[in-house]
């Protein structure tokens, strides 16, 4: 890889990370890699996460459409996955596919008074709609503003557990991406694939990386 291509890719990653920090209303710093790779797995399978490559994303919305389709989300309700766009000073736009980051220390789990949110196998954070009381404490606690609400309960990405995908298997959004912009797997494996990946540092330790 030429030095110019490498510099261009790094510039895209930095811009994408800054975009996420801006869009999520955070002031978090960007770290190289993460402590995830150095710690014991938090579940039977191990902590899973997403690796996003913004320079490959064409904003085709295939990941968002797949999320809606397989999770049966009506168009009048927020999708569990969205594309964040940022464009600065006439530069080409940067697109980042994002959803719940299945944090290692999820704030939403800690503040839920009903015990409706749990971190389960593969480190996936999921919601029990029968227990959710709609208090919105989780939305207030999440540093990324991820939780949304329908007429039943809080709703967010569960890595497609609710539509038949087993913990650790590839979610439909990743399957739908034909350009290599969105990847999923064990955090250790993702970082082995892209050791220079960066992450927005937060006390919740998100399992989403940019490369």
Model description:
- The protein is an alpha+beta fold.
- It contains six helices and eleven strands.
- The strands form five sheets. It has a three-stranded mixed beta sheet. A two-stranded antiparallel sheet has the order 1-10.
- The longest helix has 21 residues, at 3-23.
- It is globular.
Topology:
Layout: H1 3-23, E1 30-32, E2 48-52, H2 62-71, E3 82-86, E4 94-98, H3 107-111, E5 117-119, E6 125-127, H4 137-141, E7 148-149, E8 154-155, H5 172-176, E9 182-186, H6 187-193, E10 198-200, E11 208-210
Parallel strand pairs: 2-11
Antiparallel strand pairs: 1-10, 2-9, 3-4, 5-6, 7-8
Unreliable spans? 1-7, 26-43
Coarse shape: globular
Termini separation comes to 15 Å
Spatial order of strands in the largest sheet: 9-2-11
Run of helices and strands = HEEHEEHEEHEEHEHEE
Count the E strands. Answer: 11
Task: Please work out how many helical segments DSSP would assign.
Answer: 6
Task: List its traits.
alpha+beta; single chain; 211 residues; disordered N terminus; 3-stranded mixed β-sheet
In short:
This protein has 211 residues and is α+β, with helices and mostly antiparallel strands. Helix content is 25%, strand content 18%.
């Amino acid at each position: 890889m030429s030095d110019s291509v490498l510099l261009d890719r790094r510039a895209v990653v930095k811009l994408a990370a800054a975009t996420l920090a801006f869009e999520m209303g955070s002031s978090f710093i960007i770290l190289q890699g993460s402590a995830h790779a150095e710690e014991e797995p938090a579940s039977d399978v191990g902590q899973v996460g997403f690796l996003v490559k913004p320079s490959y994303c064409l904003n085709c919305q295939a990941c968002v459409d797949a999320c809606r389709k397989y999770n049966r989300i009506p168009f009048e309700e927020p999708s569990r996955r969205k594309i964040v766009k940022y464009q600065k000073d006439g530069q080409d736009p940067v697109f980042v596919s994002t959803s719940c980051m299945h944090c290692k220390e999820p704030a939403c789990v800690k503040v839920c008074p009903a015990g409706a949110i749990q971190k389960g196998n593969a480190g996936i954070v999921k919601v029990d709609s029968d227990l959710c009381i709609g208090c919105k404490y989780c939305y207030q606690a999440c540093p990324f503003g991820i939780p949304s609400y329908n007429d039943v309960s809080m709703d967010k990405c569960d890595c497609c557990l609710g539509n038949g995908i087993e913990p650790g298997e590839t979610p439909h959004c990743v399957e739908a991406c034909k350009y290599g912009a969105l990847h999923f797997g064990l955090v250790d494996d993702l970082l082995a694939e892209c050791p220079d990946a960066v992450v927005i540092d937060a006390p919740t330790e998100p399992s989403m990386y940019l490369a």
